[in-house]
Design a protein that fits this description.
The protein is α/β, with parallel strands linked by helices. The protein contains ten helices and ten strands.
């Protein structure tokens, strides 16, 4: 993000329009994980019809301004687009544990937000002789399960589906800015109070932070996921928050900037929630969309959980 650009450009490839929305419709509604994009026409979909993986993908993409993205990681990672869907699982990561849960639920379509095969584009050329990769692929083939990554498209919704879900989970919708919902103005609290609230609402065991636990907090800059150090730092400079709340950081980038800002005398703190915790609600967001568009198909959110434990 270059100086003068809007926070809405913080995630590479996203456009400013994804943060612009009607606050009365999107925030004022206050419905937890309710999608603002659910079409009235959805109620007229016949519930006795069957749908393929591709039809469900196409329906979601149709709701995204601009439609099909020319360069996206949101492709099928396993299975066939022609597979008839008998059940859907949404999740952050299509882990082996999540795949097994899908099998138990008789669901043959998994919609994941993040990569399936351990790198952003899901390039598997380097994994062909890897035993973990082969086990996962064979498990998917054995049970004829399709996996679609829905990352770029859900972020291109207006408003951003992940931001909407996370705000709802934190119960911060009513405090979010009408045009840039990542900026939240809270009733005055402390950094300790904000952290306790986030841990409780997002079911987080522990978070990492920089700052004085007794610091007064009003203005929050929320950047779920991994926006990158430059975007995080430039957003701090542009919006001057009391605290930056992120999913994850490169430790040699944003953390060091905040540490220096504190030494300079700035009123600034940093809270890292963890990537999964900060975006899990975006996967849950999909459930409302699916149940509205395809009420005859059983859809279940299966949390992938945190891959890391605390000692």
């Amino acid at each position: 993000m270059k100086p003068g650009k809007d926070l809405s450009d913080y995630n590479s490839g996203f456009t400013r329009r994804k943060f612009i929305y009607n606050v009365s419709a999107a925030i004022g509604a206050g419905v937890v994980l309710a999608s603002p994009l659910l079409s009235k026409a959805a109620g007229f979909i016949k519930t006795d019809e069957t749908y393929t993986v591709k039809q469900i993908m196409d329906m979601f993409i149709k709701d995204v301004p601009g439609g099909v993205l020319p360069n996206t990681v949101d492709t099928l990672k396993a299975g066939s687009p022609d597979t008839k869907v008998n059940g859907i699982v949404t999740t952050m990561f299509a882990t082996i544990a999540v795949i097994r849960e899908a099998i138990d639920l008789d669901a043959n379509f998994i919609i994941a937000h993040e990569p399936t095969f351990y790198n952003h584009p899901d390039d598997t050329s380097w994994l062909q002789n890897d035993e973990v990769y082969q086990y996962k692929v064979n498990l998917l083939k054995q049970h004829d399960i399709a996996i679609w990554r829905n990352h770029d498209y859900i972020h291109h919704l207006i408003p951003d589906g992940v931001t909407t879900g996370t705000l709802a989970k934190l119960d911060w919708q009513k405090y979010a800015d009408g045009k840039i919902p990542n900026i939240i103005t809270l009733p005055t609290t402390t950094l300790r109070g904000l952290i306790a609230h986030a841990k409780s609402k997002l079911n987080i065991e522990k978070v990492r932070y920089i700052g004085d636990p007794l610091q007064k907090i009003t203005k929050v800059l929320l950047m779920p996921g991994a926006a990158g150090g430059q975007r995080q730092i430039e957003a701090i400079g542009m919006y001057k928050p009391d605290v930056l709340v992120v999913g994850e950081i490169q430790e040699w980038e944003t953390a060091e900037y905040v540490r220096d800002a504190l030494a300079k005398g700035d009123n600034l703190s940093l809270v890292t929630l963890g990537h999964i915790a900060s975006e899990e609600a975006g996967s849950e967001f999909m459930i409302n969309w699916l149940k509205e568009k395809f009420p005859a198909i059983k859809a279940t959110h299966v949390p992938s959980g945190n891959s890391l434990s605390f000692m």
